[in-house]
């Protein structure tokens, strides 16, 4: 079974990603969901997911830090998601930035794939299906 770790500090986004994948994937998958980047980091080695899908802007331990951590340890593919809303380090959130800029930075940190949250409905499941197919070729 293909193991997918999903990380997002928004419970609504977390459920949306889980539900989209649960309904639209072409293969059996199990899901581990986390509302905190720090908790995902702590559980990563234990779960050994085949794919990590992470939001970028989260409090305490963000997606950039999580991507860096994962890539220092493994070659596990990482799909970074961003809506372009972030807090610029002030802790309050809500300031708008470019999702494309955030996703470009995620690539620089080691994310293998990126997707704007605005494109999730039509783009997420096909991309994860593609990642799964590539994992079959590599293994």
Give the quaternary arrangement of the chains.
single chain
Main sheet: strand order: 2-1-3-4-7
What is the helical fraction, as a range of percent? 40-55%
Portion in strands: 15-25%
Q: Largest beta sheet, briefly?
A: 5 strands, parallel
List the secondary-structure elements in sequence, H or E: EHEHEHEEEHEH
Rounded to the nearest angstrom, the distance between the terminal CA atoms is: 14 Å
Number of strands: 7
Round the mean pLDDT to the nearest integer and report it.
89
List the helices and strands and how they pair.
Layout: E1 2-7, H1 11-24, E2 29-34, H2 37-47, E3 51-55, H3 63-73, E4 78-82, E5 85-86, E6 95-96, H4 99-109, E7 113-116, H5 120-138
Parallel strand pairs: 1-2, 1-3, 3-4, 4-7
Antiparallel strand pairs: 5-6
Characterise this structure.
The protein has 139 residues and is of the alpha/beta class. It contains five helices and seven strands, in the order βαβαβαβββαβα. The chain has helices spanning 11-24, 37-47, 63-73, 99-109, 120-138, and strands at residues 2-7, 29-34, 51-55, 78-82, 85-86, 95-96, 113-116. The strands form two sheets. A five-stranded parallel beta sheet has the order 2-1-3-4-7, with helices on both faces.
Produce a short descriptive summary.
With 139 residues, the chain is α/β, with parallel strands linked by helices. The protein is built from five helices and seven strands; from the N terminus they run βαβαβαβββαβα.
Tags for this model:
139 residues, alpha/beta, 5-stranded parallel β-sheet, two-stranded antiparallel ribbon, 47% helix
């Amino acid at each position: 079974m293909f193991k997918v770790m999903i990380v997002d500090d928004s419970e609504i986004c977390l459920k949306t990603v889980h539900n989209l994948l649960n309904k639209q994937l072409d293969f059996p998958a199990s899901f581990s969901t986390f509302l905190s980047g720090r908790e995902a980091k702590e559980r990563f080695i234990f779960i050994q997911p085949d794919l990590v899908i992470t939001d970028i802007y989260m409090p305490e331990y963000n997606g950039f830090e999580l991507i860096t951590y994962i890539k220092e340890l493994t070659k596990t593919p990482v799909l970074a998601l961003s809506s372009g809303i972030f807090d610029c380090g002030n802790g309050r959130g809500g300031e708008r930035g470019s999702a494309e800029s955030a996703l470009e930075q995620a690539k620089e940190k080691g994310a293998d794939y990126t997707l704007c949250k605005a494109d999730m409905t039509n783009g997420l499941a096909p991309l994860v299906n593609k990642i799964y197919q590539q994992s079959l070729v590599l293994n």
